[in-house]
Fold:
Amino acid sequence: MPTCVIDGREVEFVPGQNLIEVAKKVGVEIPYYCYHPGLSVVAQCRMCSVEIENVPKLQPACATLPKSGMVVKTRSPRAVQNQKAVSEYLLINHPLDCPICDKSGECDLQDYSFEYGDPHTRMTEERRTYVDLDMGPVIVKNMNRCIHCTRCIRFGIEVAGIHEMVATERGNWTEISTIDGRPLETDYAGNYADICPTGSLLLKDFRFKRRVWFLKKTPTTCEACARGCNMEIHQDGNVIYRCVPRENLEVNKYWLCDEGRFNFHYIHDKDRVVAPMARLSGKLEVTNWDRAIEAARETMNAKKPAILVGSDLTQQEAVLLRDEFLPRKFPGAPFFHFGTPEIISSKDDGPADKILKRKSRTANLHGLEKLGYNGFEKLPAGTDAVLIVRGGRAVLPELKLSKIVGIGVFKRKEVESFAAVLPGVTFAEKDGTVVNFQGREQTFRRAVAPPDGCKGLPEVLMTWINHKEGAR
Amino acid sequence: MSEQERPPEQPFEDSQPETLFIQHFCEEARPLSYYLKNMSGYSALKKALGMSSDEVINEVKKAHIRGRGGAGFPAGVKWSLIPKESAKAKYFICNADESEPGTFKDRDLMRYTPHLVLEGMAIGAYAIGAHTGYIYIRGEYVRETGILQAAILEAEKAGYLGKNIMGTGFDFEITIHRGAGAYICGEETALLNSLEGRRGEPRVKPPYPAIAGAFGGPTVVNNVETLAGVPFVLNRGGDWYAKLGRITNSGGTRIYEVSGHVKKPGLYELDSGSVTVRQLIYDYCHGILDDKKLKAVIPGGSSAPVLRADEIDVVADIDPMLKIGSMLGSAGMIVVSEDYCLVRLLARIVRFYAHESCGQCTPCREGTKWAQDILDRIEGGRGHQQDLGLILQVADNMNAKSLCALADAAAGPIISFVTKFRADFEAHIRGGKCPHA
Structure:
């Protein structure tokens, strides 16, 4: 491989990689704002300018491809002076309202200003201010904090495929806005907040909820569709505050759709069934686990039971059902997977848009199919009881039956006709593996503890199997 | 006889060498018939079409035509950078967005000799193998747009433009595109963005326009005056054209535009490198208005670093100017007499660049406005002693640090004005007001 020299170190590089990436590999940080590995290079923040031997002007590292033998200095006096100057320029009109800014703590502008800037200001003129417009339900804009990196504009055009963010006016008066101040239309709007290097574009959903340094981060996989985007769950005190994408170039690159990003809200939904329920005196009511299990067993003690397994379950859960629970308790009973209306087998799954979303709105359709589950179309004739096991996202089919037992995560409304509900845990409350549409096995990681009344599927099934009649 | 009364036909001007353009700067010169009769119109194109493209490019290279837009890049070299084979269509663009303050030569070239520009474009297009041409003209040049449009129709009708030019099978069509009033669109990549219907912002280079310019195709962008010289090169030969220049590497004549406090402002066409700034001001323009003392000269459009009165014995051409730390740029000289406040002039210049910055690059977007605010404060008598050091640093921090040269264009004047005329700025700060007011 060809080599170049960065800050005195000889570095091998893959031709085509820019200086920022090459330097990153050997632990040399070149600061940047406008550059983003998933977007086109515009070289306009000028923060990444470095000195290259025998080149008179400083060169932006983001737009410079190393050549064999090139000698790069990222901390030469001229480069440092430029970093200082750009930091100063970016701050002269910045409101410095970090104490009330949600980006504070994970803000590129804050970090680089500490690292490369000067603690004193020489600006005595009036700062530039803007009047902000509503940007729709996902994003809140504070233009005063903007450093005009135009990542958002490029994200819209290049990734989301919609030219909705624009720069209006020019020069010092440039404003980053939507066309005619319209609300954002893309359903990938959350990414605008992720890529914004300052607190200019923030999630309305997360705003003023938690300082970021309190958040604990758990790498996990999104369960909102068959792509299985890699993401992180950020929680504090057992409450999930947000999900952010995690880089995986082969699955989701750097992005996450809004549906997946805000999917976690059902976990803390007040309508979630978090205690076992059973139809005791004709009415479904909250009870204890023993009674609920008893009611469930009674209900399922039928001539022709059928089992519906949500394609939002993990591989481990599906194997447990297939190999242990079903052969013991329901030998020979038909079992199906369900998840998205109209998507019966993996053949029906396909891209739902040009970016990330898949037609299957559950994460593990492809995995369950691999395990030998068949898609649910309709109940076999004569079925008199149904056991539904699901994770929380699979769309319940309409069943005209009175004998239904649910295991897993449900909303109160969904279980009105059920005979018993054994509350389970969501993807954020368990470990497990799902298989995405590429056949890639990815893991869920437990980020928060489940509510007291809920139990993981293995525990529920064990209780079911070992339950002694009248043990209470 | 005083300077003022001297009639224009002085022996001094009679001795001027033959000029290429300026004697045709009259309304009668505009029609095609005049161009054909008196300027051997379109004979150069005919000659070029009989040559190979390499021969044309070599002739232009020999002529040492340096770009008249400001950067001084040799036109022949620019053409030779265009790849011979290209999957995408090539474009030949005339940059008529003459927007540097102090510059007004292209306007007259287009107004009086539009066919010269069109012929130059056609020759260039043939040399690089382009079949589509654009004239990107600044929006304010309404009259010139009409004149060029009429000239294009005239030339197309006569078979000098359009399909199958003069029966040679070469096609070249020119479209006029009017700018919407942005200085930055005179920068060639911003011009291309604007032409494509995008926001007028300079692009990251590389790739250079010669490889991927307008609509992604190889593109040449030449200034109006550069192109107007091309027919002469073909007609009389590159060597003849190069010899018009009195110094090496700079061929042909050059139109100097002198404005400001001189007795006879206007356009002066002279052989490249044949005059000094002093000669231009005192001989050609008959000296300073009211015989005041000269204070300063901005030698090449408002972005050129200023010259003091004792620095004007420099030859007014590209390389000598660079040597003394200024630049010839578009050769638009702004002459300032002792009566005028230089702080006010600099504040106005910097205000212009702050207003015209596209806002992409941090140093330019923030620096130009900051500098403007500081200068406005000093000019208004509210400056502090530290402001001079501060503004020099602000200027230095935006100099040569952006995508294009706009920030440099603001930094050059700031640095040169403040260092060369520091006393004027200090007088403002100390006195709390403008001494000239």
User: Anything to note?
Assistant: Chain A has a mean pLDDT of 95. The domain at 3-90 of chain A is CATH 3.10.20.740 (Ubiquitin-like (UB roll)). The radius of gyration of chain A is 27 Å.
